[in-house]
Design a protein that fits this description.
Elements (H helix, E strand, L loop, with lengths): L1 H7 L6 E5 L16 H7 L3 E5 L17 H19 L6 E6 L1 H10 L7 E7 L12 E4 L11 E4 L1
Parallel strand pairs: 1-2, 1-3, 3-4
Antiparallel strand pairs: 5-6
Helix pairs in contact: 3-4
């Protein structure tokens, strides 16, 4: 897509939006000593770790928003509101989801958004490898003028 192409050819880092799974909060991505938030920010990435509805510091989830589809819509709308604060510094949005957050990230990525989606990374999604390899790694050569060599890994 164009957003991915722009993200791969710019010196700007993407905005990372981290979506936690069930039984966790946004603190899942900020564990001392292995914090995604600290490590990504130290490398120049914008990072947002959201508390899903009914978790952490977010408002309680009413019965009308307890479905995956409603959660995905709420997160997408939150990114809609936050993106204008980051769009000048960041080259698109990369969704990172764990467990139920992985399912939500994929659901969000499957729909057209008002912000540029540059990638999706998921873990703990319960996927079962069907072939001899459990990991795929693809790297892209930088385009002319790019100072980064982006690497996309699917594990």
């Amino acid at each position: 897509t164009r957003a991915l192409q722009r993200a791969l050819t710019t010196d700007r880092c993407p905005l990372i939006v981290a979506i936690h799974g069930g039984g966790f909060t946004s603190e899942y991505f900020d564990i001392p000593g292995c914090s995604l938030i600290v490590r990504a920010a130290a490398r120049g990435y914008g990072v947002i770790a959201l508390d899903r509805l009914g978790y952490g510091r977010s408002r309680a989830a009413g019965k009308d928003v307890q479905t995956l589809a409603a959660n995905a819509e709420w997160i997408s709308e939150a990114i809609d509101r936050l993106w204008p604060q980051f769009q000048e510094e960041c080259a698109g949005v990369v969704l990172i989801g764990h467990s139920i957050g992985a399912a939500l990230a994929v659901m969000i990525a499957a729909k057209r958004q008002s912000w540029p989606l540059a990638g999706v990374a998921v873990s703990g999604a319960g996927l079962t490898p069907t072939g001899p390899s459990t990991a795929i790694s693809t790297s892209f050569q930088p385009t002319r003028g790019s100072k980064r060599q982006p690497i996309i890994k699917i594990v």
